[in-house]
Amino acid sequence: MAIMKQPFFSLLLLLVVLCYSTTTSAQSPAAAPAPSPSSAPTDIIRILKKAQGFTTLIRLLKTSQVANQIDSQLLNSNSGLTFFAPSDSAFQSLKAGFLNSLNDQQKNELIQFHMLPSFVATTNFDTLSNPVRTQAGADPDRLALNITGSGNQVNLTTGIVNATVGGTVYTDNQLAVYQVDKVLIPRDIVVPKPPAPAPAPAKTKTSKKKSADTAASPADDDSAAMTLKQRMWVPVGVAAIAALAVSL
Ligand SMILES: *[C@@H]1O[C@H](CO)[C@@H](O)[C@H](O)[C@H]1NC(C)=O
Ligand SMILES: *[C@@H]1O[C@H](CO)[C@@H](O)[C@H](O)[C@H]1NC(C)=O
Ligand SMILES: *[C@@H]1O[C@H](CO)[C@@H](O)[C@H](O)[C@H]1NC(C)=O
Fold this sequence. Notes:
Blueprint (H helix, E strand, L loop, with lengths): L1 H26 L16 H8 L3 H9 L2 H11 L4 E6 L1 H5 L11 H9 L2 E2 L29 E5 L2 E5 L4 E10 L3 E6 L6 H4 L10 H15 L2 H30 L1
Parallel strand pairs: 1-6
Antiparallel strand pairs: 1-2, 3-4, 4-5, 5-6
Helix pairs in contact: 1-9
The protein binds 2-acetamido-2-deoxy-beta-D-glucopyranose (3 copies).
The site of one 2-acetamido-2-deoxy-beta-D-glucopyranose has 6 residues, from loops.
């Protein structure tokens, strides 16, 4: 018995040490290499600040998070982006209280409506077919944007607003920013939507409850934690049983 005890304890010690080292090494994440961009990424806020006269637009881009979206879109797409930037005087010519009357979703739509999901040079506006698709969506009635002319004279109309391009703020063959003298308001924001059919109230309630139940997933975390703990103790248990068998 006394002879058996010593190898048993050294075996147990070895297993415990092994078990401990694997769990700690699993917990320390592999060091991710720091991203090293070859050139500074485009920063729409910096561009507009430098150009001056876009304080309202900058505030809207920041509060709506669309500034971040634009920057990451430029990093991830090859087709580029065209942005019609309304000047501060364009915002000042809006009906008083108009911006404040919009909810967050409408503000987001308003900004997306000022963007085309591709780079368009000033000389190429006449190659677009009307209505032009903006990032707000493709609805040819409620989200129409017509662009006519090219070069020195570019006109835009939404059916609500007529605007003209006042000049190029920035261009780098991937991003084009053009100043516009009016905020481009799509019909979708000012023309009331046709009433949507009333939803069945009972169905909505049950589905809501169901989705809330499925959304709650702490059970998943619990089971994952349990499995990890169980895994940790399995070798120890095996060692104990083996040692017991040997000592008997
Ligand atoms: C742009 O609109 C103005 C009127 O606002 C008009 O005189 C001009 O001809 C239009 N230009 C083009 C290219 O449509
Ligand atoms: C935009 O252009 C299309 C096609 O030419 C036309 O059918 C539509 O009426 C125009 N919309 C506006 C608001 O000018
Ligand atoms: C926009 O211009 C068209 C003609 O090009 C005109 O019929 C329309 O009334 C104008 N709309 C506004 C809001 O100025």
